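Hey, I was hoping to borrow your eyes for a little while. For a while now I've been wondering how a particular protein folds. The fold is given in discrete form, as structure tokens running alongside the sequence. Could you read through the record and tell me how the tokens relate to the sequence? Take your time with it, there's no hurry, and the full record follows here:
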Amino acid sequence: MTDLEFLLSKIRDVQDFPQPGILFKDITPLLQDCEALRVACRLLAEPFRERGVSVVVGIESRGFIFGPPVALDLGVGFVPARKAGKLPWKTVEETYDLEYGTDQVQMHEDAIGSEDRVLIIDDLMATGGTAAAVTNLVRRMGGELVGLSILVELTFLEGRKLIDGVEIHSLLEV
């Protein structure tokens, strides 16, 4: 079994969650398996190992699970990208569209600088709105985007269409 087959075997489909008609990709079994978690973090970091990344940004909330181990693997620091109102210091924010309304993502105003080469980490890309917002936020803060590394991409939702000029590495495309 390949590493990717191993990881895929640790993701459970949950029908009709959080609402009828949705097939939810539950990564909890992967997180519970030490070897699967280790493999996932290694593979998320691998394509960017020699790319001069200086900081990893993790998208709330499961990007917080994968981001710090990837940052440690790359020998760099970690920055959380959070939903509005969750950070204690001065923030910079980016608003993005949801199916019904808008939402916001924030980072501390001093988290990313013009010298930073940034890798963004998340567990799942669906419609791409949150990842696009974090990408825009990093650019507005002056950071250079090295890439976006995702555990699972729901390709049928075409989320990567919202993200211009950034290398996207998805471990599992479903």
Q: What stands out?
A: The chain has one domain: 51-173. The helical segments are 3-9, 28-32, 34-45, 63-74, 129-140. Residues 31 and 37 are 6 Å apart (CA to CA).
